[in-house]
Amino acid sequence: MTYDELTPPERRVWDAFPAGTAVDFRAAPEEDPAEGADWGPERTVRGEALRALLLTHPTTAGEVAKVDVRGARISGQLDLRHGDITCPVHLTHCSFDAQPDLYAARLGELHLWRSVLPGLSAVGAQFESFVALSECRATGMVSFSSARIARTLYLDRLSVESARAEERGVAVALNHTVIGDAVVATALSARGEVRLDGATVTAQVAMSSARLHNPGGIALNAKGLTVGSDLTARGLHAQGSITLRSARIPGQLDLTEARLSSPDGMALRVSSAAIGEMWLRDATPIEGTVNLRRTQLQLLHAEPAVWPEQVRLGEFTYTTLLPHLPAADRLPLLVRDEYLPHAYQQLTAAYQRVGDDTATRLVQLAAYRRHRTTLPAYARAWSWVQDITVGYGFRPLRAAAWLGALLLIGTIAYALHHPRPLKSGEAPDFNPLFYTFDLLLPIIGFGQESAYAPHGGYQWLSYALIISGWLLVTTIVAGITRAISRP
Questions:
Q1: Which phi and psi angles does 73 have, rounded to 5°?
Q2: Structure confidence at residue 318 as a pLDDT band (50, 70, 90)
């Protein structure tokens, strides 16, 4: 395309390009680019004219060339596929008729602030500086799949709606994208899936106050995401699944005041991930299943009320649990999955680290009781005996109470009715207290049991005391052994 083939608005852009001068077609700074379809030829620039300008690179010595167009209607497609464009491209407050195609292009800096466009394709593109789509509105997918961006990607207050069937419900695609600085997507609004799977971000991902809407599907797919520091999503509202499987986030995964909803599916999947800290402080109760299996955390901040009815905890590990609450408030979470000894061990270790011995014992006791439900009938019976008598060794005073009660019963019974001596004249004087001791304690002997023989119901009482003594002593020994062996 030659200069003579350009329209007057396009000539203004070409003339301003070598010196990097801005060309502003706006009638007023606050006008809405969504009305761009009604803008006339006096502010229309063809995509092919911009392509020709960017690929020919007319320059002026001592000046920095730059496309800086504001408030124009970009008619036709801006096709920069495989182009090598080193100058900054600023097309702000513009209205695009067609989706720009930057496939495998190499660009310096791209700035589309507050523009309206039917989507953007930058698959495999390379950007030597930052890319900004702040406050843009897109009626189709915005894709930077497999792109490389040297500096920050700005998607703050971007509004995207996946409207075409070929996009398969994807609103923003950053899968396998490499970003040299950060992703700023605060107040992002997306109707459709936001993909960050396999992406690498050197600094952080900021998604606070984002609104992700993809009911029944995946709202945020960050499977295998690697960030240098944090993923901040304070106040995030997500209708659809949040997936962070195998993510690597050494800093914080901050979901403070988040609202996550996928009632019929997986609301939050953070499995096989390695994360420094996960914050769910003041978050709305999650609607849907949560999967934390095989994830490693240094710190977890979550109130018990935030967890849904189904939480998967297999091999989930953490070091610190906040806020510090009584064990009775934390234990209900562990029964929302199948019995997993590891889950109880983790909670026990968390209380041990802060020196809360009472909570530690309660969690261990709850673990034995939960384990009992997995045992066969005969083992459950023996487990019940240990629980009732000594609380699996965590209730030693209960054993003393049982012994005292049986001793009292036997002493009163045999004081009222002395058993007859086996050998008259040779038996020691009868003592109901020590006779009952002889029956209850299988090891210690006071010579009373072997010298006297009760009859009738009292004989059955002696059998009951002997059996109870054996069971009680055996249970006490087992409980004491378990208590000594615990760390």
A1: -95, 120
A2: very high
Q: How far apart are CA 242 and CA 220, in angstroms?
A: 5
pLDDT number for residue 259: 98
- Taking CB atoms within 8 Å and a gap of at least 24, the contacts of 252-256 are 252/276, 252/277, 252/278, 252/279, 253/277, 253/278, 253/279, 254/230, 254/279, 255/279, 255/280, 255/283, 256/280, 256/281, 256/282, 256/283
pLDDT tens track for 14-33:
999 998 999 999 989 889 99
Is pLDDT of 66 > 50? yes
Q: Are 325 and 295 in contact (CB under 8 A)?
A: no
- Closest residue by Cα to residue 101 from 81, 72, 86: 81
What is the chain's mean pLDDT, rounded?
90
Nearest in space to 463 (alpha carbons), one of 475, 478, 449: 449
Q: Is the peptide bond between 428 and the residue preceding it cis, with omega within 30 degrees of 0?
A: no
Closest CA to 288 of 236, 244, 239, 254: 239
The pair of structure tokens assigned to 234 is 């304070």
Q: Give the pLDDT of residue 451.
A: 83
* DSSP-derived secondary structure for 163-221: -SGGGTTEEEE-TT-EESS-EE-TT-EEESEEE-TT-EESS-EE-TT-EEEEEEEEEEE
